[in-house]
Amino acid sequence: MSTLDLAIRILPASETVGAIVTGVDLSQRLHPGTIQILKDALARHLVLVYRDQDLAPDDLVRYSRQFGELDPAPLSEWGRQCLPGHEEIYLISNIIENGRPIGALGAGESEWHSDMNFEKVPPFGSCLYGVEVPKDGGNTGFISAFAAYERLPDDLKAFIEDLSLKHDATTNSGGALRKGHVAPTDLTVSPGEIHPLVKVDPETGRKALFLGRRRYAYVMDLPIADSEALLDELWYHVTELTPSWHHRWRVCDLVQWDNRWTMHRRDPFPGDQRRLMYRTQIRGTTA
Hints:
The protein has about 290 residues and is of the alpha+beta class. The protein has 2 domains: about 5-145 and about 245-280, Clavaminate synthase-like (Double-stranded beta-helix, 4-Layer Sandwich), CATH 3.60.130; about 145-240, Double-stranded beta-helix, CATH 3.60.130.10. It is about 20% helix and about 30% strand. It has helices spanning about 30-45, 55-65, 145-150, 155-160, 225-240, and strands at about 10, 20, 45-50, 75, 80, 80-85, 85-95, 95, 100, 105, 110-115, 125-130, 140-145, 165-170, 190-195, 200, 205-210, 220, 245, 255-260, 260-265, 275-280. Strands 1, 2, 3, 6, 7, 10, 12, 20 and 22 form a 9-stranded mixed beta sheet that branches. A hairpin with a 2-residue loop joins strand 8 (about 95) and strand 9. The protein is globular.
């Protein structure tokens, strides 16, 4: 461990998810020992917050790549909205230029979800960097998928143990249709990848609830009415009974999360207040 590593402090933000990291400058090339400390912290806390990080786009990309290969910016309702010259930096913004938004998701609420769960191999995680933040709203909330599962009643755990969920591929977390898609009319044949409702962390053996997002989801092999009732019950446990932690943004904050074992949401904010975020997405390696 280097002398610089000794300056790192990791303070839990809540009992179930999140930690504030101080004593590290992500604009610099980090010692391998420092990177391992941060990887261990992410595995333990699932979400890490770094305040006051003055990052150029190349700094954000370099840090993110310490955790894996990066995906290009995903398709939104306006196509692929990335930072010019950086296809791996996804713009999330409500700013309008030349009659169209420069980034995705606007100023509305983004409901609880995990990212790109409709893919065969969802992403490992993401880093989100605050370039411009609104004065009011726009906070990002997180839930541990481990905590969500562990708080379910035993009979419900037993019932969902071997069930699988089809994750809708047609809409984004803001509820807008993705480019080239139409709203499903029959959930049994709608597009989306199928994943177990209960996932197991191969490193710890802990079980997690893998819901992805609510809209157009379907529990395989159940009548649609039964699928809807079960999902309503599970989502009630997640959104009403599972502890969450919300991050209040400042300019130059970087928030990193493990997408495999968390869910997140965004509060709405006034549309006349600018918000510009840079996001990188770290490619997953296993389903």
